[in-house]
Amino acid sequence: MVTSPKPxxxxxxxxxxxxxxxxxxxxxxxxxxxxxxxxAVDGVRAAxxxxxxxxxxxxxxxxxxxxxxxGRQGLxxxxxxxPTLGARAVVLxxxxxxxxxxxxIVKLDPGTVFSKPPEREALxxxxxRRIADVPDEAAAPTHSTMRPKKP
Length: 151
What we know:
The chain is α/β, with parallel strands linked by helices. It is about 40% helix and about 15% strand. It is built from 6 helices and 5 strands. α5 links the parallel β4 (about 90-95) and β5 (about 115). It is globular, with a radius of gyration of 16 Å.
């Protein structure tokens, strides 16, 4: 009997989850474990605070509809503060009653928008695709979100 070698285990993906829904902030880390290590915050200001403290992430998930700073505005801020992380971000949405946000969401790249509640395997695959599609070199070294490669 011929057996195939087991695929190498992929590194754990470090995810910054930005969502004002407390139930989702509790559920998504459990949903994505053990493939992802999720840091969940309740808004864009808290996310920017994490980045200012030197925390690094491989990818971000941002809710579209949030008070104060919505997902579109938050994504613009992430792209300015942490270009690679912003470029790797995906948007989570339950739909939008705001016509401008609904029109914006349709224009986003395929694979960057996920409906609530997200399907586990599709979301993990989408996060890994975003990391692969946006190389670490997209940001200055001080904004690097990738861990050093193992020898």
